[in-house]
Amino acid sequence: MLPIILNVRTFRIYNILNEAGEARDVGLLIACAFLLVILNSLRALPIYLGSYLLCFRISKINKWIFRITILLIVLSVYYLTGQVYDVYYDFGIPSVIVILMIYLLDGFNLETVKLYQRSIILICVLIGAQFLDVIPALSAYGFGRGIVSTDIKLLAEYFDKYNVLGIFCLSQVVVFLSMAALFSRLLMGQHKLLTSAAELAEARIQALEFRKNLELRHLVHDLKTPLTTIEALAGVCQMRSREEKIKDYQRRIIDSAESMGEMISQILEPQRTSPITLEEVFNCSMFQITSQRNKDMIIIQNGAADRYINVNKITFSRALVNLINNAVDAVDPSTGRIWISTNANEGEITLTVQDNGCGISEKNIAKVWDAGFSTHGSTGLGMGYVKETVDTCGGMIELESKLGEGTKITIRLKESVSNEAT
Question: What is the Cα–Cα distance from 227 to 233, expressed in whole angstroms?
Fold first, then answer.
């Protein structure tokens, strides 16, 4: 629609050109050249910049589709403008230069740099390329084939100011292309800094997690010594005791100590898995939820309670607790509900955690599993831990969420058999 508003008449280019011819004023001639460049740049900017912004996402899928689509859009708009307004844009070498700059911008891979900042580079190249059309010496090489630019160059030749016009336009080309090069350098430096900062932050999170895990492993390992002592002394007391009731108490102590020893082994060896029922998983997880108010929000439908899954009881229970805690943070304390359900179907166990909370925006869904990402001020390690735990068990995890409606997380695992059955 720009040709309706921006055209040679509204810019009074031919009026000024006639005045320049009558007065033989080279200043007016240069003013005409400058106005023509601004006119062409303003009309071309939405075409090239719009094409780049429209196809930006395509470049992440396929580079060749991106390049072909950009070219097709530009050619189509040029053709349609000519058909509708009888204004024919010249697809010449400046157009090719701008398209190549779009390809180059995409090749820089400046993902951390905002689109409007990259657009500044494109605008500078576009203006600089338009000045090439008004340099008389480049006419022989296919530049400036439009009617207005040809008239300006003919008048410059008539004035014998051929070189003056050429030097002015060439200086503008150098200025705008230098600005584009400078902005490119600055943005590439900014991209490197932002990338380094993101990598540093991730490294710090990994270091903190490693240190936490190391200290936890040392602490848990140190628990084995007193636990072994308890188990041994309870066994001695059981053998020396004559009262059945005391023997029963000692047997319970030994069983509990053995169970704790197994839990410690699983903590020290997170890769170690064993078949356990979903009933055991739920009991272990719910035991870790200390708030009765939080427990009251939870509705459990364990349709596969007696089915087995091959997981690390401690880490998997902890992952389930993380999902529940996230759901608790997302729901309203008075009306919030969290539904946990399981289902067994053709050798696959499906575990679902669903809430009626605030939900997650589309732009944040892809970031949920990233270490350090959080929308409520936590460490952001919980969801990453959940995914890592499910992956270790050979399972799959899916997330569905709508802002203002709630979130649903589905874990799929292969059904296992008990140790006794094997």
Answer: 10
